[in-house]
Amino acid sequence: MHAWWTGQWGTQGAAAESAASRAKYVCVRSSVLRTSAEVPQYPFRYSLEYLAGTRVGSTSPKPSHLIANSCRVYGRRCNNATLAASPRPPAPPPMRGLLVAACCQVAAGWKPVFVDTHCHLVHRRFPPAEAAAAIARASEKRVGFVVVNGLEAASNREVLEFCKAHPNALPACGIYPLDACANAMSKLSFEDFTPPAPWDVSAELKWLRERARAGDIVALGEVGLDRHYTQDEACLQEQEQVLREVFDIAVESDLPVILHTRKAESRVLEMLQEQQVQRAIFHCYMGKKKLAQRIAEAGYYISIPSAIARPHDTFVTMARSVPLERILTETDAPYMGPVKGERNEPATIPSAVQTIADVRGEAIEDVARQIHQNFCDVFGIRTAPESNQDLPWMAAKQVA
Q: 62, 111, 257, 322 - which has most CB atoms within 10 Å?
């Protein structure tokens, strides 16, 4: 049983100690319960165990406060509560909630907190040990959240398992456009690539709906349309049919979608608006500048990969022309890295943020702060106290 730590906490637990004597590291354990007993406007119950005075690696954490501080979980606002201290919060009922332990560093003053909204750490170029090491390196670079995306049945399940082992890795599951039309593609021949094998797409859509309803994922992705590899009408129709069903799940479960839109950016925008999807990320957007501005005006986000640091002209243009309030960062690891041809990983995100800041003529701290806030907004996560002091960052450190 595993759950994603999402929420805002106060500093009441630390207030009892002076700033000078307060431990620099604290551990946080949170639980998210989804119960039918909650009133409709509060479908999630949120609690957080603040373990004050605990350094990373300590075997004897000292519990202090359980706090739910007007937080938002998956886009829904929870009720305020201050709960009694407890060494271990009660586990959620089977299949109804999530439980995670994560470590945070509390620093005096604000420091950049980076986010990777789209990567593929469950990939043949990342054997399990190397994927775990990549998460650790990302934490060392202050990459606080890494959204790991699935593409089809096998990778979706691998993503869930991987994220259970890594507290700052958040799971997104989806159906990649070419996998969405695999059955239609099986009737065609291709010279430049091998299409995916036919499979039961309908069963996977049902599974995605179940995972979304259970609160097991933070987003639906990677999903979308692809008109680069195929322009066959039957394939495109299958892609659109699957994407419409995914959008239905997103609306029903109030989840964001992470979009692949290669040579289909305008059509995807139309579909989002037709189905009134509220939150969407155009991953690795390489479309036209005017369309990017329309996407931003519609309230959606443009995600820029760390390939911008090469530099990459298209992404530089996006960084310069799209409002900062609509920009996110990603790696698309193992692809789209700062050095062309080398395996990319989440630890390269700071180079992307630095390049965006340079292009815009702004301080990296300001750019990082806004992108972090954008991430929180699109995923419905509140992570920072009202004060900019003591802004935490997630570390890939499992708590027993």
A: 257
